[in-house]
Amino acid sequence: MGWSFADRVYWVTGAFGALGAATVTRLADAGAHVIASSRHVDDKRFADFPRVVPLAVDVADDDSVRAAFAHIEERFDRLDGLVVSTNVAAFGDFLDLTDDDWQRVIDAKLLGSVRPIRAALPRFIEQARGAIVAISGRGGIAPPPNHFPGSSVNAALDLLVQGLGRRYGPHGVRVNAVAPGPIRSPRFDAMATAQVEDEPTRLTALDGPGTPEDVAAAVAYLLSDDARFVTGTRLYVDGGGPPYA
User: Which segments constitute the Ketoreductase domain (predicted)?
Assistant: First the structure.
């Protein structure tokens, strides 16, 4: 199903990664203005989408995030939703991962989600409407043995979404998470390379892995008016999880 987002304004962080880019494209195709932010931007990536505004933002820097939000306010004087899709990879055996590996994931994905949400939330409260979607992951409830930092952050994001959804629902703000399972992307390829020998090779009940467009469709639903009574929850896009074998 397609939703119309005509003339709405959305901010997508991590917009030049596989999931973020698919989300930007999905929203722009549906008529939205999309601020596509990332630490490094490629002005040619969304050249066919005149409603997409690339914006260099470092979500590890609160000043950069707040400056980006101020730019959005000045240009559009409106924001209908926020998608936080930042991610970094830190794969390996638990005993081999360093404090720096853990901190890099925490700062980029957990705090890199907190900062844009914190910047945009007062606007949503003021206008008594707004939708926030965080990209977490199935590892938040079923952590693979080679992905403990990312899985731990996914669990933290899911908990944050639950709390924010309850706290700010009375203000008209909906907060949800999309938790992808195996999705075909450079990150998936990195995980496959780091796979330990006793990890199952078939990861989904349905024929997988999925695609970034599968995730973008779930994000679009949670941003849409059809999800007006959905908040504080996570939507799995994981092909049904590991099959029973």
Answer: 8-181
